[in-house]
C-alpha cells in the first residue's frame, strides 16, 4: 500500500496552534506574568524598605544563583553566640525549627507584605506573636539546621518573593 502525504487540514491547525501558543507565551512574559517576573516587586514598595544590619559580620554567600540552586538570602559569618537583632520593627510571625534546612528560625512580619527571616540560630529570644522593636535581640548566632559553620542566614521577602536584602541595609 503506497504512503499518502499527511492531510493538510491536520497540519495547518497544529501550525496555527503553535504560533498562537508562542504569541501568548511571548505576551505573558513581556507583560510581567510568568517566571520571567518571579523576583520583581514594585519599586515604590522597595523604596520604603530600610533595614538595620542584623549582625556584625562578613557576607560569605550572596543572594541569587549558586551551585546547588538559588540562594534566597545572604549568609553573614559571625562568632558563635553573637546577638542577632531585628532589622526592622515587626511581629514575630514564626519562631521554631520546623522549616526544613533553616534550623532555629525567626520570621518577622513588618507589614505591607514585607518579612525578614533569620536562620541557623543557636537560641531564639522571641516568641511567636510578640511585637519586636527594630534592633531588639531576637536570637544568637549558631549553626543549626543545614549549616556547616556559625553564621546567620538572612532573607528579605516581599509578598513571599525573595529579594536581595543588601541594597536595603543601612539606607
Features:
171 residues, alpha+beta, 10-stranded antiparallel beta sheet, two-stranded antiparallel sheet, 12 strands
* Rg (C-alpha, Å): 23 Å
Count the helices. How many? 2
The biggest beta sheet, please?
10 strands, antiparallel
- Can you give the mean pLDDT? 80
Count of β-strands: 12
Shape: globular
Model regions low in confidence, pLDDT < 50 over at least 5 residues: 9-39
Helix content: 10-25%
How much of the polypeptide forms β-strand, as a percent range? 25-35%
Query: SS-based structural class?
Result: alpha+beta
Note the gap between the termini. 78 Å
Order of helices and strands: HHEEEEEEEEEEEE
Overview of this structure, please?
The protein is of the alpha+beta class. 16% of the residues lie in helices and 35% in strands. The protein contains 2 helices and 12 strands. The protein has helices spanning 8-30, 43-47, and strands at residues 58-61, 64-66, 69-71, 74-77, 83-85, 90-96, 104-109, 114-124, 131-132, 137-141, 151-158, 161-163. Strands 1, 4, 5, 6, 7, 8, 9, 10, 11 and 12 form a 10-stranded antiparallel β-sheet that branches. The protein has a two-stranded antiparallel ribbon with strand order 2-3. A hairpin with a 7-residue loop joins strand 6 (90-96) and strand 7 (104-109). The chain is globular, with a radius of gyration of 23 Å.
Amino acid at each position: 500500500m503506497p504512503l499518502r502525504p499527511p492531510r493538510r487540514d491536520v497540519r495547518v491547525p497544529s501550525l496555527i496552534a503553535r504560533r498562537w501558543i508562542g504569541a501568548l507565551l511571548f505576551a505573558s512574559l513581556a507583560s510581567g506574568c510568568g517566571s520571567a517576573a518571579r523576583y520583581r516587586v514594585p519599586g515604590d514598595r522597595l523604596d520604603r524598605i530600610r533595614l538595620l544590619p542584623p549582625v556584625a559580620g562578613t557576607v560569605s554567600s550572596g543572594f541569587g544563583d549558586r551551585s546547588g540552586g538559588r540562594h534566597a538570602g545572604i549568609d553573614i559569618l559571625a562568632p558563635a553566640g553573637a546577638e542577632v537583632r531585628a532589622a526592622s520593627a515587626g511581629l514575630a510571625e514564626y519562631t521554631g525549627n520546623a522549616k526544613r534546612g533553616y534550623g532555629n528560625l525567626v520570621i518577622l512580619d513588618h507589614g505591607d507584605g514585607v518579612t525578614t527571616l533569620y536562620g541557623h540560630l543557636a537560641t531564639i529570644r522571641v516568641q511567636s506573636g510578640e511585637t519586636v522593636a527594630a534592633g531588639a535581640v531576637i536570637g544568637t548566632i549558631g549553626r543549626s539546621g543545614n549549616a556547616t559553620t556559625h553564621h546567620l542566614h538572612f532573607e528579605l521577602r516581599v509578598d513571599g518573593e525573595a529579594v536581595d536584602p543588601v541594597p536595603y541595609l543601612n539606607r
